[in-house]
Amino acid sequence: MMIIRLKMIAVSLLSVVSLLFQCKPLLADESLPSDFWSGFKLGGYSSAGITLHRDKDAEAALNEVSMLLTWNGDSRWSFFGELELEDPLTWNDDRKFNTKESRLDLERLYLDYNFSETVNLRIGRFLTPNSRWNLLHASPLVWTSTRPLPTYRLFPTATNGLMLHGSKPWGDLSLDYMLFKELLEDQEDDDYDLPFQHVYGGRVALSKQWNVGVSLLSFEEKDIAVLHKRDKTYRMVGLDFVTHLGSVEVSGEGFARFAQNGNDGGSGAYLQTVVPIKNDWFWVTRLETMQRPQEGSSERWLVGATWRIKPTQLLKLEFVGGSGNQPEAPRGFVSSFAILF
Fold first, then answer.
1. What's the CA gap between 91 and 59, in Å, rounded?
2. What is the CA radius of gyration of the chain?
3. Do 239 and 269 contact (CB within 8 A), yes or no?
4. According to the model, what pLDDT value does residue 231 have?
5. What does the alpha-carbon distance between residue 11 and residue 7 come to, in Å, rounded to a whole number?
6. In the prediction, which pLDDT does 37 show?
7. Looking at residue 46, what is its pLDDT?
8. What does the pLDDT look like over 18-28, one tens digit per residue?
9. What is the DSSP string of 39-93?
């Protein structure tokens, strides 16, 4: 995001951390570990690709360079930060190589405090936990170059606030929960993201052979031109799952939004299958649909193949078609290489 947003989030986070450390004797009788600095780890991921558009010129790009900084010591505290440089270098026939579309995005910046095995408190900027894809969207962790439309055009992808989360055994299942609320709105609107405010909600997920998650969310979508500059409050319910039928991975998500005035708030869903072929090649197919107020519906289909060169490297080749023009949802041939380091 922009520099002002980075400053506001960092100042708010540091202020709360300072207060928490002043209250530390009430929470736990701990001292700063002697190997504090050894708890830091630096990593990241990146991807680059080419797109042969169906209805415009071809382009190539270094899609992102994302740096991940984590800290885990002997105390109850842990830290996670992700700073991403998006589209640092692009090329097309008109502008050749250029950096005009590059932008800095603070994806995540939060502290976790572990109260017990089942209760953790998170404060800062985190990915909104109402979509499995949204939580695992990093290029080396997903099968396709393109992201399903419903997972970034229907809800805020990140939230600045508090989250209570944890995991608890439930019979032979594992029950994960996340409850969250926005405390600080983004201080500057981003031209590339839809603006949201007053975000809160929760998610529960059961894990075994079938991994199923259910989420509830409330938010305002603000200052959208197609909504005639009127803020709209929505409630949203989401369902996501991933399972294996033999060696085939099947996953999907569905979302339905409801406006306060009873009008249609929009909806979306996708279904994806991943079939192993041979020599670490996988056949990927996906169908997706999305509908937003005043914008109509958009559909996409995808067929392609992904080569897992190494556990940390993926080569992706895919053909994408469908109807409706949407930002960051090209139609045509898309190929990318993603690496986790």
1. 5
2. 21
3. no
4. 61
5. 6
6. 82
7. 97
8. 433 343 333 33
9. GEEEEEEEEEEEEEESSS--EEEEEEEEEEEEEE-SSSEEEEEEEEEEEEEEEET
Interacting residues of 308 by C-beta distance below 8 A, sequence separation 6+:
280, 281, 282, 314
Token pair 């958009």 is at which residue? 298
* pLDDT tens, residue by residue, 163-190: 999 999 888 889 999 999 999 887 666 6
Within the chain, which residues score under 50 in pLDDT? 1-31
- The reported pLDDT for the residue numbered 218 is 96
**CA–CA distance, 335 with 287 (Å, rounded to integer):** 18
Residues in the chain: 341
Q: Measure CA 272 to chain center.
A: 17
**Domains of the chain by residue range:** 47-62+118-340
What Å distances lie between residue 38 and 21, 43, 279, 340, CA to CA? 21, 14, 38, 21
pLDDT at 228: 56
For residues 273 and 285, is the Cβ–Cβ distance under 8 A? yes
User: CATH number of the domain at 47-62+118-340, please?
Assistant: 2.40.160.10
